[in-house]
């Protein structure tokens, strides 16, 4: 049976990160302030719709993250545009962080690691206790991000909030992921198998 060519990782990256880059660039091009924020919100909404279409037609799969993001961006973005107030689109990250935290904590309480379902093929060799600890750690991290987002959107300008949201949260998330590596290694993670799994895992 002939297999369809796999979508490039470039398409996946574009779907995952394209909308937030459009959001950031649109705000800067529109001159910032309330006007820039509303223009950026409209561009963000258009970009997430395009990303959703690309996921359906090119990648042939819409991830749970994209479903959640699209619903919240269109919902909060629509309210922001209708009321002329960008604070509602700023609430979207808080909603996502809280949702992730609740889902992960519920799994930990039930002794079922949700992250294992998502990243099992990548974190090869990690034992069940390691998955539970990783889920717990990320749940706490998402709660901290939700609190940080609320503080930033209430006390900082939209432009400053957006810059920290795009670049600051990304850097902090990478550092937090790296900080978990010693714990993962103690619980059976095999770095060599992990690298092999990443290379062999098909893009869906």
3D structure, described in words:
This protein is mainly alpha-helical and 204 residues long. The protein has one domain. It is built from 9 helices and no strands. The chain is globular.
Q: Mind sketching the topology for me?
A:
Blueprint: H1 9-29, H2 33-59, H3 64-83, H4 87-109, H5 114-119, H6 128-155, H7 158-179, H8 181-186, H9 191-200
Helix pairs in contact: 1-2, 1-7, 2-3, 3-4, 4-6, 6-7
- Largest pleated sheet: none
> Approximately what portion of the residues adopt beta-strand conformation?
under 5%
Terminal Cα span: 18 Å
Q: How many distinct helices?
A: 9
Question: In a few lines, what is going on in this structure?
Answer:
By secondary structure, the protein is mainly alpha-helical.
Summary keywords:
disordered N terminus; 9 helices; 204 residues; mainly alpha
């Amino acid at each position: 049976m002939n297999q369809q060519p796999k979508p490039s990782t470039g398409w996946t990256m574009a779907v995952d990160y394209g909308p937030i880059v459009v959001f950031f660039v649109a705000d800067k091009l529109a001159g910032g302030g309330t006007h820039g924020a509303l223009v950026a919100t409209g561009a963000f909404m258009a970009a997430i719709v395009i990303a959703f279409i690309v996921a359906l037609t090119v990648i042939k799969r819409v991830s749970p993250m994209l479903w959640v993001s699209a619903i919240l961006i269109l919902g909060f973005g629509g309210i922001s545009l209708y009321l002329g107030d960008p604070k509602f689109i700023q609430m979207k990250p808080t909603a996502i962080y809280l949702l992730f935290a609740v889902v992960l904590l519920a799994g930990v309480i039930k002794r079922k690691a949700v992250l294992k379902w998502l990243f099992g093929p990548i974190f090869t060799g990690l034992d069940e206790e390691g998955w539970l600890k990783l889920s717990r750690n990320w749940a706490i991290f998402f709660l901290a991000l939700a609190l940080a987002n609320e503080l930033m959107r209430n006390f900082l300008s939209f432009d400053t909030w957006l810059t920290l949201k795009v670049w600051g949260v990304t850097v902090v998330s990478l550092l937090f992921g790296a900080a978990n590596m010693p714990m993962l290694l103690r619980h059976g993670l095999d770095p060599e198998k992990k690298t092999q799994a990443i290379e062999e895992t098909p893009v869906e």
